[in-house]
Amino acid sequence: MAEAGLLYKNQVFLLAQTFFILDNREELLLNAHKYDFDILFFDQMTDFVDAVSHADEHALFLIDLDVLYNMQADMQQQKRQTMFLSDLLQRLPAGHEYIYLQTNRQGERFVLQQRLVDSKCLAYAEKPITNENLVDRLFNIFARKQSGSNNTILYLDEQPALDTALLASHDIQVVHHTDATTLHLRVKALQPDIVLISEAKYLQTDAVARILKKNIEFDSGREIFLLQESSQSHVARQALDGGFDQILSRTEPDILTRQLVHRIQKIRTSKDLISRDRATGLLNKVGLQKRAQEWIQKAQQQGKPLAYGVIDIDKFKTINDTWGHYFGDIVIKRLSLVLSAYVGESDLLSRFGGEEFVMVFWDCDAQTGKQRMDMMREAFGRVVFQVTPEETRQFSFSGGLATFPECKSENELFLRADEQLYQAKQNGRNQICG
């Protein structure tokens, strides 16, 4: 494919001399490309270090520790010699974390594990590991590093003593609420990730967690914590039986904050696995529907319009039938990159299914929404795909648009936009209707 450097959203830099380089390169690349990242292979330390020094901040750096026994330690020397781990770690560029691959025998050495995790280690894995499993784990790390999520903790009581700077560095905000009898309404409006309830408030109204969880619209991924002041075990037992997910003890602000940050990171990972498309990293159908409902509610409260667009790649079945499903996946991924360049932080973008994408533009009327979708359509039309060594092609998509508050619900918006998409197809494709 042409423009390979622009084709994939992320990159992995792999330093290895055996195993992957000799046996698994093609299959490993094939799996990685399906998840929209590329792997660059290096078999010399100097080349790897230079590439890492100039790499994009989102890249991952993977080192097969067999290089310790195979690497040419000095490029000026013509003989090979064993490199010690300390030599390797010393030569790696500062300011980066690395993923290490090791054998089972290496994994049995606790001192080696300790040295790795204490020195520039993002993660490690043991060989043998299948290409599919390795790529899946790397993709999860990309998603975790780039999720960019903003999360909220709702605290029932006066403002708790927490490390606000640490929370802010992880994009977490804390909102406090003092009335237990209206907590369920605040949860519905705010949609927090964690509801933290002080022991004093719980003892005043012990049904508070049950009331939250029995609501049919309660998010099963949301967690309810009790912040316990006393050490009375019967209170903890009663709270757990009453619907609380975890008991936290009142401790120093920085320790309590770290406990909450770690839990939020787990929640983020779980939500990404449920709500994001594995191939493109965009919201999937489930994630889009949930977020769109939140956007509609917020737009209604603030009196803002929304533009809701549905697009579909023209003649996509012909693309798959002519050049294969793998090439079709490439077209989808390239389209996701084009669309992503035209959405802002307050907008939503989803791979709704197959070759169909949905976007929601915040504070956007019908005219502006149509203009933005036309810009996307024209940009995608300029992308050149090399279908054979001698032949290039360009493709198009059609789209339909609906707006809030004219349409009141996410389902109504989708149905209206889908009708307009059908009209665009009927009118000759490669256009936006709405």
Briefly say what this structure is.
The chain has 434 residues and is of the alpha/beta class.
Q: Please name the fourth-level CATH homologous superfamily of the largest domain.
A: Reverse transcriptase/Diguanylate cyclase domain
Cα(first) to Cα(last) distance is 35 Å
CATH topology of the largest domain: Alpha-Beta Plaits
Name of the CATH class of the largest domain? Alpha Beta
Helix amount: 40-55%
* Backbone CA Rg: 26 Å
Structural domains: how many: 3
The average pLDDT value, as a whole number, equals: 86
Specify the structural class.
alpha/beta
Strand content: 15-25%
Task: Summarize the structure in words.
The protein has 434 residues and is of the alpha/beta class. The chain folds into 3 domains: 4-145, 3-Layer(aba) Sandwich (Rossmann fold), CATH 3.40.50; 151-275, Response regulator (Rossmann fold), CATH 3.40.50; 285-433, Reverse transcriptase/Diguanylate cyclase domain (Alpha-Beta Plaits), CATH 3.30.70. 46% of the residues lie in helices and 22% in strands. The chain has 19 helices and 17 strands. The protein has a 5-stranded parallel sheet. It has a 5-stranded parallel sheet with strand order 7-6-8-9-10. It starts with a helix and ends with a strand.
